[in-house]
Amino acid sequence: MHIGPHKIGRDARPFIIAEMSGNHNQSLARALEIVDAAAATGVQAMKMQTYTADTITLNVRGGDFEITDENSLWKGRNLHELYDEAHTPWEWHEEIMRRAQRHGMLCFSTPFDETAVDFLESLNVPAYKIASFESTHLPLIRKVAATGKPMIVSTGMATVAEIHEAVTTARQAGAKDIVLLKCTSNYPATPANTNVLTIPHMRELFGCEIGLSDHTMGVGAAIAAVAHGASVVEKHFTLRRADGGVDSVFSLEPEEMKSLAIETERAWQSLGTVTYGAGESEQKSLAFRQSVYVARDVPAGSILTKEDLRIVRPGHGLAPKHYEMLIGRRANRDLKAGTATSWDMILN
């Protein structure tokens, strides 16, 4: 499959998505600076989120609409206020996308309701992302699938049955190109609860491309994911974590994102195929193996002793495994010290 001009698959370099989320801190100038910085890191795509506080939640205080989890980054926040602070104004989308296009970088978004899909269609986005928390929102999945564009679906918290239901719904509604992202919906997540070994299992179960939506710090989990077959990696991105913002704590800075782009590609390149023996690039290195050489001048007819032969570098003589077979054999000609051994110097 392809997203824009980029091939997605294990035979292509990993497709890296920089997620802006709310890291613009309600500044369009900062949002555009984030786009510029992402492009400079070498990632292929920038992603936004498309919602308003009113399209994603209710303007209700207290009860279910307050975050009370002691371990949450957003403990004590009201949902409507939090989403109002984090959302990307819809009037910014076109300018942000134009900026990305100027850099030759794709830009698409995560819609959180059907009206956001209609809006993004008017901007002709090249793909759609479904967030983990919306992976059970089947009406939204049908709406996105009906566009016929590639879909990337995060699967944080989702059971096998829920993922199956989402994939089946998408395919029945017209989706042909689907990427599932292994995701742990903690913010930040830890490497220990990332479970990248799920990636090849998901590929086998669902028959589509698999990637990682990574909320850990650093790049280690993403590299491990690529080593286990991930073809897409998504990471939150900011200019500086110290600038604050709703997602800044688990976002990568530019140098870290650049490292991610470089190291995931190196990880992918290193996979290769199952192979043994000296590869094409190793042929010259064969000379640095050890082999059996004549260690001192030996007159013709002499019986070879351990003093006459040594196992040394380079590797142009007989292999070390033949050393004992040569001891006690008779030289059929004069042998000079430094001569690589061969069977034709031995009397039968």
Automatic annotation (TrEMBL):
* SMART domains reported for this sequence: SAF
One of the entry's Gene Ontology molecular-function terms is:
N-acylneuraminate-9-phosphate synthase activity
State the name under which the record lists this protein: Pseudaminic acid synthase
Which domain of life does this protein belong to? Bacteria
The protein's matches in Pfam families, at most eight in alphabetical order, are given as:
NeuB, SAF
- GO process annotations (BP): carbohydrate biosynthetic process
Which CDD domains does this chain map to? SAF_NeuB_like
- The residues covered by the AFP-like domain are 291-348
PROSITE patterns for this protein:
AFP_LIKE
